[in-house]
Amino acid sequence: MKKHIALVPGDGIGPDIVNEAVKVLEVVGKKFGHEFTTTSYLAGGAALDALGIPLPEDTLEGCKKSDSVLLGAVGGPKWDTLASNLRPEKALLGLRSGMGLFCNLRPAILYKQLSDACPLKDEIIGDGLDIMVVRELTGGIYFGERGREGDRAYDTMAYSIPEVERIVRKGFEIAQKRSKRLCSIDKANILNSSQLWREVVEKMKGEYPDVKVSHMYVDNAAMQLVRNPRQFDVIVTSNMFGDILSDEASQITGSIGMLPSASLAADGFGMYEPIHGSAPDIAGQNIANPIATVLSVAMMLRYSFSMAKEADAIEEAVSKVLDGGYRTADIYTDGMKKVGTSEMGTLIAQAL
Ligand code: IPM
Ligand code: MG
């Protein structure tokens, strides 16, 4: 197959890790007989510095025309004092809404090779953690009416039934392919938009009789994720709750540098990125962990290109390298072999 991928390395460690992911992608292409071509685009702080805007038209258009998008990370202290419509994060929101990427998949997996890094007690982790957070990504408070008037500022959380239906449907479909448990997380004891959300889930569950549905308030969910994370399999939730809970879910695995994500449109088109940020303090020093970005490429192959065996091959290569004791600084423990960003990319490419 021939596929064209838009690269949006972004800021901080973004370029470091995207380089390594491309290295791995090229090897996959050779090994499985695909032709992957790439074009790089500016977004975030990099675009602000070059052009004075966070998301150039050319970037959005280039991404839309591609078969898939791989993003590094955007943002950094250098641009933190800008007005909110000029901040690098605006680029991310613009890409998400501009391409209709309403469905954000954020797996939180505890890698057995890294179980020492998990901050939870052994009896809580049992034989591992594997949670899929399905986050609504183009609605809710991130995109609602907002403003600032004198000494007052406001943001609005609004959802329509079709917006809730399409993300909840994704939640059900993913739960059907996993352990058939879906937990919908809301704040229906307070918020109207959450009451609507809950009604939609209740109405739809008849279509998925094989899936066991539960509802949980977001504050309780934040607590349960630490107290007993193994009760969760697939979580479906709104934009802001998903933002917060997916950070929490990733942290309890102790593997934040390892976790990929997919942001999908209705037709399967997607943008893929590591869940971690741009870590400007270690940018360009060859110490960032490229694994989350490499695994994001695996998700791209699986979800957008239906290349399951290619995706499996990447995931197995990562596992092999971890089995070999190779670790970047963020996941390093005594007795392991410390490697830099580019060495890690090369090791994974070789394992392939
Ligand atoms: C994320 C990030 C973004 C979000 C920011 C950078 C806009 O925290 O992808 O989770 O809040 O969605
Ligand atoms: Mg976040």
Set down the secondary structure blueprint.
Layout lengths: L1 E9 L3 H19 L2 E6 L4 H7 L5 H9 L2 E6 L15 H10 L4 E7 L12 H4 L4 E7 L9 E4 L2 E4 L5 H17 L3 E6 L5 H13 L7 E6 H10 L6 E4 L1 H15 L6 E5 L5 E5 L16 H13 L4 H16 L2 E2 L9 E2 L2 H11 L1
Parallel strand pairs: 1-2, 1-3, 3-12, 5-10, 8-9, 8-10, 13-14
Antiparallel strand pairs: 4-5, 4-11, 6-7, 11-12
Magnesium ion binds next to helix 9.
Explain the overall architecture.
The protein has 352 residues and is α/β, with parallel strands linked by helices. It folds into two domains: 1-102 and 259-352, Isopropylmalate Dehydrogenase, CATH 3.40.718; 119-252, Isopropylmalate Dehydrogenase, CATH 3.40.718.10. The protein is 41% helix and 21% strand. The chain contains twelve helices and 14 strands. The chain has helices at residues 14-32, 45-51, 57-65, 89-98, 122-125, 161-177, 192-204, 218-227, 239-253, 291-303, 308-323, 341-351, and strands at residues 2-10, 35-40, 68-73, 103-109, 130-136, 146-149, 152-155, 181-186, 212-217, 234-237, 260-264, 270-274, 326-327, 337-338. Strands 2-1-3-12-11-4-5-10-8-9 form a ten-stranded mixed sheet, sandwiched between helices. A hairpin with a 2-residue loop joins strand 6 (146-149) and strand 7 (152-155). Helix 8 runs parallel beside helix 9 (239-253). The longest helix is centred in the first third of the chain and has 19 residues, at 14-32. The protein is globular, with a radius of gyration of 20 Å. It starts with a strand and ends with a helix. 49% of the residues are buried. The site of 3-isopropylmalic acid (IPM) has 4 residues, from helix 4.
